[in-house]
Amino acid sequence: MLKKVLEKFPASVFQSLHEAAGVYRIEKNLCAIVGELPEAMEKYCVATFEHEKVSILKLPSMDVEIELPDREVLLTAVYRINHSDPFYVPTGRIFVRLRKKINMQEKAEALKDMQFRIIDIPKYAPHSGWVEHLSGKTDKALSEINQIKNLEDVENIEPQMLSVRSLKASSG
pLDDT digits over 4-61, tens only? Predict the structure, then answer.
């Protein structure tokens, strides 16, 4: 089951369109559960993002069966930029920034033709917004993200990735 789920995700995904940006690479021996971690899976947990209810699992093989309790729990891929970097878990959301004079809403139809929909446009930046795949599936969003690069007036695209938060110590 795990193998079937993870093979739908792309092996790599660009961090952004900027030249200096890195590339997220899938971690083949890891997966993430978003939502409540089933008790039977606790022994495989190597990291958690508690605020987002994300558990990173290292399983003994890709053939392990994972029983998910309900639809509120999602099984997804885990990425890293470098092997020693933190874990990144995709959300399926993609941030798109257009040229300043172009309103994101103007691209709604073109995005729909690419199987994406606008889910949020910040009031302070109407030339940008969050999109997701029409299917709602994270693997589809990542697999088809390159289509958005070809949209006229696009300046940047970034897949949203969750990671461990590190809090800065106060200096006082």
Answer: 888 999 999 999 988 888 999 999 889 999 988 888 888 999 999 877 889 999 988 7
Name the DSSP letter for residue 18: S
Tokens found for residue 139: 């693997």
| CA distances to 4, 65, 78, 86, 113 from 27, in Å | 15, 18, 6, 11, 31
Beta strands 12-14 and 23-26, pairing class: antiparallel
How far apart CA 159 and CA 171 sit, in angstroms, is: 33
Residues paired with residue 130 on neighbouring β-strands, in sequence order = 95, 120
In this prediction, residue 167 has a pLDDT band, given cuts at 50, 70 and 90, of very low
Closest CA to 161 of 68, 72, 76: 76
Q: Which residues does 132 contact at the CB level (< 8 Å), separation at least 6?
A: 92, 93, 94, 116, 117, 119, 141
Provide the pLDDT confidence category of residue 71 given band limits of 50, 70 and 90.
low
- Would you list the DSSP string of 41-83? GGGGEEEEEGGGTEEEEE-S-TT------STT-EEE--EESST
